[in-house]
Each structure stands twice: as C-alpha cells, then as structure tokens.
Write a structure and sequence with these properties.
Largest sheet: 5 strands, parallel
Number of domains: 2
Radius of gyration: 17 Å
Order of helices and strands: EEEHEHEHHHHHH
Structural class: alpha/beta
C-alpha cells in the first residue's frame, strides 16, 4: 500500500481526518514553501489539500515538479492543492473536485478565492472562503438559474469583501441588496447544505480517490 503524506487543515476542520482518509496515511499541517523538499525517499504519494498563502511563502510549482520528476504521485484538491493542480495538470499533477475544475477552466483565477482565516491549533475556520459562494453560483449558472453575466456580477460583489473579513452571514446580508441572487443562493443552500462547503466536499473526493487507488493496487 502506498505511503501517502496528506497536507490538510481547515478544509475538514470539524471532523477527524481519519473519518474519510484510510490506509497508510500521515497527516501534516497545511503545506508551505520548503516542506516538500524535506520529504524522505519512502514517500510514494503526496496529497495537497490545504496550504498557507500569506503567513508563510506558498509551496512553489518548482517543488511539486521535483516530486513528479522523481516519480512521486502528487494529487491536489480543495484549496492550495486545487490551485497548484490547475497550474500543473499538464505536467503530471492530478487535480480532483470542483475547485480544481473552476481554476483549470478559468472561471476563477485568484488564490484569494480559496484563502481564509483559521485557528492554527484547531484549524477551525474563522472566515468563509469566497469559493464557497463562487462554486455555488457556478452551479446555478450550469443549471440555467442565472447567466454568465449575472454570475460574474455576483463574483464582483463577493470580491469587494477581503478574504480576512468574509463570513457567510455577512455575505448573505450584503447580497440582500440583490434580492434575486440572495433568494436563489438561500434556496440552493437549503436544498443541499453540502453544496456550500465545496472545499470539504472536494477533500472527501480526494480521500475516496486515494482509497480507490490503493484497492486497485
């Protein structure tokens, strides 16, 4: 069974990581610049979910490429992992989930879309990432509830709030100035709460991928 390092934190902060990730797994805190260069030769696979953005230097494309060139499988989802996978999927990094697809397809392009404030000890989310709203709005566009221009108008509204200050309740309150969008978003969330927490949903998809890969070996 592959030995896998999983860099994870706030994307699944409310539950034990072991609830979803099984097998020969070692959990580590959100990845930062230099972490990958310190991995030993026994590592066969690296999964990046979360990473730091501004408190430390972010993990670089070069570091990930070095692992891939050594034959180590690198998989990403949810947050930093999705962002780097979208930059490197043509170079061998595998991306999983909606957030990766949104970056890959150019629907979002800022690292601020997945950034948030969290407690460094418990990983509990203090703010809400923009991607929670933007992914939901893209789902609404795909279903024909809003068009591309309306989605981008909402994106502009969301982007007016700094990621260090954005909360779910605060953004929903702000969107009340735009009743059509506010009502649709509330209805969407009430129909399926999991649609809002896209980073967690994508992290679970990554965990499922790792389990399936191990079973196929």
């Amino acid at each position: 069974m592959n030995k896998t390092i999983v860099y994870i934190g706030p994307s699944i902060a409310e539950e034990p990581f072991e609830k979803y990730f099984k097998g020969n797994i070692e959990f580590r805190a959100p990845v930062k610049r230099g972490d990958l260069l310190q991995l030993d030769d026994s590592i066969e696979r690296v999964a990046i979910v979360d990473g730091v953005f501004h408190s430390s230097l972010a993990v670089s494309i070069r570091e990930i490429k070095e692992l891939i060139n050594k034959g180590i499988e690198v998989v990403g989802s949810s947050s930093m992992g999705a962002l780097r996978a979208a930059e490197l999927y043509n170079h061998g990094m595998k991306g999983i989930g909606k957030v990766f697809e949104l970056y890959r397809d150019g629907i979002i392009d800022s690292d601020a879309d997945v950034a948030l404030m969290f407690d460094p000890k418990t990983f509990r989310n203090i703010t809400t990432p923009r991607i929670s709203f933007k992914s939901l709005l893209n789902d609404m566009r795909v279903q024909g509830l809003i068009d591309k221009d309306e989605m981008e108008e909402c994106f502009t509204i969301i982007d007016t709030v700094h990621y260090m200050e954005l909360t779910r309740s605060g953004m929903l309150k702000k969107l009340k100035n735009f009743p059509k969008y506010s009502t649709l978003i509330n209805d969407f969330i009430q129909a399926d709460e999991s649609l809002f927490d896209v980073k967690k949903a994508d992290a679970i998809k990554l965990a499922d991928y790792l389990i399936a890969s191990d079973q196929a070996c």
